[in-house]
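Sequence and fold
=================
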Amino acid sequence: MSESAARESTTPPPDFADAIGRVRLGRLASRILFYPTIGSTNDVAAALANHEGDVEGVVVSADEQTAGRGRRGHVWHSPPGTGLYVSVILEPGAARVDPDRATMLVTLMAGVALVEGILAATGLQPDLKWPNDLVVGRRKLAGILSEGVGASIAGGRVSTVVVGYGINIAQTAYPPEVAARATSLESELGRSIDRAIVFAQTLASLASRYDDLLAGRFDAILEAWRRRAPAAVGARVTWTSPAGPQSGVTAGIDDRGALLVRIGGRIERIVAGEIVWL
């Protein structure tokens, strides 16, 4: 991370610090960097992971992102004061049980944690949509971007992942290209929402589910994800494969988090790519 970026970071605002002090964060929040304005919290977190040791649990957050992004290069609208923009450095490759599988399940684990954190903070329980969205009906409330980075730990190479998430908190004027498919906590609940409480509760839930991941409690994570993802079974989807456009009906997820889609009499396993939900 550049010296200028380090100088621009501050401690969290007092209301955020107070809310954090009321929850259990376990191995997370070993350090919390807060930026009034930043390009991308994931970029700063990745730079930390690449250039500093002992960064597990570091949290990078911002009031505004000028270059926020989602999966596959999509822009994440990040105006000041209206959302949460957070990135956390995790080390699933150091899991005690099957580190490769733990790394594959990071995004699903984070999705479960965010639903649980939002529920605890607001009473609203959004649904999950594979692989990285939280939705209310057909409108997107939050998104997750997990990006692997290299990090040298104890003389070896382990898989380190930056898990970034954005949650729409307040009603705002979304860009035309996303206005029809975006929503916010305040829009859904019809009342003001305390961002600090959502920040603290989502981190607390992430800490708890991250412990599950590191301990190899994969079935607990997968079962929780399936309960919160009704569209994972029986929804019609399309996507582009190396063989060309494909379509089918979702048939759940497997034990490594891949989406299963039924095409005629066979099951296709999808691990990445752009899925269109019909």
